[in-house]
Amino acid sequence: MSTLFAGLFDDAAIFPPGNVPMTEAVAAHRARQGSPLVGPFVCSLARFDELASCAGGSPLRVSLVLPGPVDALPAAGGVEIVAVEGPSLGRGTLTTYVEIPCVEVTATRVAALREAGLRLKIRTGGVRADAFPTEPELAGAIWAAVRGGLAFKLTAGLHDPIRHRDPVTGFEHHGFLNVLLATARALQGYEIERALVDQDGDRVAAAVAGIDDVLAKAVRHHFISFGTCSIDEPAAGLRRYGLISEAAL
Question: Using CB atoms within 10 A as the burial measure, which of 34, 50, 56, 79 is most buried?
């Protein structure tokens, strides 16, 4: 398994547009816990009790989405909170991602997050067209994060590996392979936006496959993961381009 894909998919199955019932989502996540592709289960604070009621067994690694700062995090047997994410969160004892609109990811904001020991969360999609940043906007955010030495995660809209227009909604989706390549290009100092724009799947996949181990580790030092309501779809995309084996998930 390439370093580029290890733990890349955070399991956000209970969020739109997937909206998988909690019990079903937890069972599916537990079935995949041995996969090197899958990161933590993503759950909102509002649904934590529901999660706790069906978690059971060995601790389920969870990234908890908060509406804002909280006095204390909930606790339950069978649940291990490994990260928190949301708007306007302060430094804590856990890995913390602060969500900032893509257009507001500036060098100044990046420096403030880094100094506070925080990470960045960028929304790359949703149920409305305006939730999808443009290529220049996302390229600027990636450049600012990489230049500022900041780790980031993405959320929403990245089920497919390659940039494309959804035939049903008409929304322009970024591809997660495009983002991996754009992060590599940011580290190399060139063609970030071009990497995001490219809709030639074979070309993008070949470029990603050509990233060596040293650069791959640097890419994932910045681009930690992305939340996806489907694990099967992005994994199938990697298999389609020959980037992982059939047995990887």
Answer: 79
Distance, in Å, from the CA atom of 230 to the CA atom of 228, rounded to the nearest integer, reads: 5
CA distances from 236 to 32, 59, 161, 187, 223 (A): 14, 27, 9, 28, 20
Tell me the CA end-to-end span of the chain in Å, nearest whole number: 11
CA distance 59 to 79: 5
To which residue do tokens 């956000």 refer? 12
Which amino acid makes up residue 44?
S
Q: Which helix (H) or strand (E) holds 177?
A: helix 176-188
Give strand pairing partners of 86. 98
**DSSP secondary structure code for residue 103 in this structure:** G
45 contacts: CB under 8 Å, gap ≥ 6: 64, 65, 66, 67, 70, 74
The verdict on pTM exceeding 0.90 is yes
pLDDT at 1 over 70: no
